[in-house]
Design goal:
Elements (H helix, E strand, L loop, with lengths): L5 H6 L21 E9 L3 H14 L4 E4 L7 H7 L18 H16 L3 E4 L12 H16 L1 H4 L10 H7 L3 E2 L10 H8 L3 E7 L6 E3 L2 E11 L4 E4 L2 H9 L8 H20 L6 E6 L7 H13 L5 E4 L1 H18 L2
Parallel strand pairs: 1-2, 1-9, 1-10, 2-3, 4-5, 5-7
Antiparallel strand pairs: 6-7, 7-8
Length: 335
């Protein structure tokens, strides 16, 4: 059994509880259910504001997987970004449209950091790295590091750079999610050598504990039942967008898509909350697909569950040490 006491969790960061099967009647009230929500891309400044407001009114902390080309203009990209296997200055997700946009985005990143959210890496130009070598990934990570470090300079606002930004850029980005959740043999060695402390690029059959490969914890977005047929779908907004409308924007049916999504999220939460209390991970993008259906469903879920005394809506960075501590405690209790 993996268990963390409520007193311990409140003294640190709310944590979680069990790895052995359990019925609702046997789950101790001191055990906590983790909900881990992340956003890929982290670009649109209006959605930065919206997500930070959602965090405040729900009490949640998020992980933001940032794509670094949003901290440079296209002209900058041609000078400093050489994506593996691509022409210099290319990006599948574009670049910042202006210096002012970079400054506003950097301000949101800093505010999120101050608010206790987890700023993590989504590499740079959102390319499929399934064929990349270790050196390719390291090149991408190096560009990310430079782009984050120099964000205020690229915004032409060096005087506005907050005290502590350079240290934050150097030391505080420790998590990674691969674009398209696409991996290669070179990724893990590159992550370890670059100093990442977790990877969140996997997919699991259902909610699962992080696994470790060569000492690096790896999280996976779960398949969750959804819709009238309860067919499994990855717990991510884009996958629901493709299922609901074949990836074509459909605002007319937005309310129906929201209800289906909310129901899937809530049932996935209730299964863990009333059972094993394995962390529930949900992924999103900085795009409001199908008229914002998926963000609205998320807001509803977090509003309902994050205030519970035995639920903790936390980032990956917050969750990881709590899970590790719980495992150590469980191991010690076995002797």
């Amino acid at each position: 059994m993996i268990r963390i006491s409520l007193a311990f969790s409140l003294a640190m960061v709310p944590a979680l509880a069990r790895s052995e099967p359990a019925t609702p009647a046997t789950v101790p009230t001191a055990d906590l259910q983790l909900v881990i929500v992340s956003f890929d891309g982290a670009h649109d400044n209006a959605l930065w504001e919206k997500s930070l407001a959602m965090a405040k009114h729900t009490g949640a902390h998020f992980t933001y997987f940032l794509s670094c080309t949003f901290l440079m203009t296209r002209a900058d990209g041609k000078e400093i970004y050489r994506p593996p296997g691509q022409k210099p200055g290319r990006s599948n997700v574009g670049f910042a449209q202006s210096r002012e946009e970079i400054a506003v985005r950097a301000g949101h990143i800093w505010q999120a950091h101050l608010d206790g959210h987890d700023i993590a890496s989504h590499a740079c130009g959102h390319f499929d790295g399934k064929g990349w070598s270790k050196a390719d990934w390291q090149s991408e990570f190096a560009t990310f590091n430079t782009a984050l470090r120099d964000a205020w300079k690229k915004a032409e606002r060096p005087e506005a750079e907050p005290e502590g930004w350079a240290e934050f850029a150097k030391a505080d980005v420790k998590g990674f999610r691969a674009p398209y959740l696409s991996l290669s043999d070179g990724l893990l060695p590159a992550l370890k050598e670059t100093g990442f402390t977790y990877d969140a690029s996997l997919v699991t059959k259902g909610p699962g504990w992080p696994t470790a490969k060569d000492g690096l914890p790896r999280f996976g977005l779960p398949l969750i039942p959804e819709g009238p047929s309860q067919r499994p779908v990855i717990g991510m907004d884009y996958n629901l967008f493709v299922r609901h409308s074949m990836g074509i924007e459909n605002k007319k049916d937005s309310a129906r898509f929201e209800e289906r999504t909310y129901e899937a999220y809530r049932k996935a939460f209730d299964r863990e909350y009333g059972g094993d209390r394995i962390p529930l991970q949900l992924g999103f993008h900085f795009v409001e697909m199908n008229g914002g259906a998926y963000w609205r469903a998320l807001d509803r879920l977090l509003t309902e569950v994050c205030g519970k005394s035995d639920v903790a809506c936390v980032s990956y960075a917050q969750a990881l040490p709590m899970i590790e501590q719980a495992k150590k405690k469980a191991d010690r209790s076995a002797f």
